[in-house]
Amino acid sequence: MIALFLAPLLIGAAPAPRDWSKTVTQTSSGAFVVGNPKAKVKLIEYLSYTCPHCGHFSAQSAGVLKGKYVRSGSTSVELRHAIRDKLDMAATIIARCTGPAGFFAATDAMFASQEDWLVRGMQFDRVNAGRMGLYPENARLRALADGAGLTDIGRARGLSDAALDACFANEADTLKVVVMADAAWTAIRAAAPNDGGTPSFVVNGKPYPHADWAALDKVLQAAGAR
Asked: Which residues form a coiled coil (predicted)?
C-alpha cells in the first residue's frame, strides 16, 4: 500500500540539473576549459592577468557567463594565456599551480585583487630589478610573486610553499605556457592587426577581438547561450 502511494512521487521526481561549472578539463596545449565538453557555444578567451580590461571583463561577466551559461551546459569557456610581462607570468604560474579544480577560482581571485598586487609588483620590481637579475629565471619569478603578494593569493587557495616551489621550478609547464602565449598573440594580431590586445575572444571559431561584455553577451546569446 505504501509502495503504491510513493510510486507517483518517485516517477514525478526530476533529477536536479547538472552544474557544468564544476566540470574542468585541460587541452593538450595546456589550456583549461570549464563547462560541458559538448556545449553548443564554445568561447575562447585570450587573457593576461596584468591587463586591467581583462579584470573588468572578469567582474562584469562572471554572474551570467559562468553563473548561468556555463552552469546550464550551453556554453564552455577555454582560457588561453597571452603573457604580457613578468608579473603576468608569475600570476599565471600560481593560478595554474592550483590545477584543474582550482584554476578558475584562482583566476577570479587574481582579477579581484589585481589593483593591489599589480601596483605592489611593479614597485617591487623597480626597487629590486638589479638584485633579481642575478637570479635564475624561475627564482626571479618567484621573488617577484612574493614581492607582489601573488603567493599569498596562492596560499589562500590552498597551495603550500612546497607546492609553489615545485610549480615555479616546473620548466615543462612554463614552456607550455610560453608556446601557448606565442600562439595566442599570433591569433590576436591576426584578428586585429593594428591594435590587437587582451582580452580577445573567439566564439565557435569566429574572432571578436574588441568585444566588451555587453557586446559579447549578445554574440553568445545569438549562438545559443542560455
From this structure: none
C-alpha cell at 128: 629590486
Scanning 65-195, the segments in alpha helix (DSSP H) are: 71-72, 86-97, 99-112, 114-132, 137-148, 150-156, 161-168, 171-191
Other Cβ atoms within 10 Å of 16 Cβ, number: 6
> What predicted TM-score, i.e. pTM, was given to this entire model?
0.91
| Contact indicator for 167, 97 with CB cutoff of 8 Å | yes
How far apart, in whole angstroms, are the C-alpha atoms of residue 21 and residue 33?
10
Model confidence pLDDT, tens digit, residues 22-43: 999 999 999 999 999 999 999 9
Distance CA 33, CA 23 (A): 8
182 secondary structure, DSSP code = H
Q: What is the pLDDT of residues 89-129, one digit of tens each?
A: 999 999 999 999 999 999 999 999 999 999 999 999 999 98
CA atoms of 142 and 120, how far apart (whole Å): 14
For the domain made up of 29-223, give the CATH fold: Glutaredoxin (3.40.30)
Q: CA Rg, the chain, in Å?
A: 20
Reference 95, options 50, 29, 40, 41; nearest CA is 50
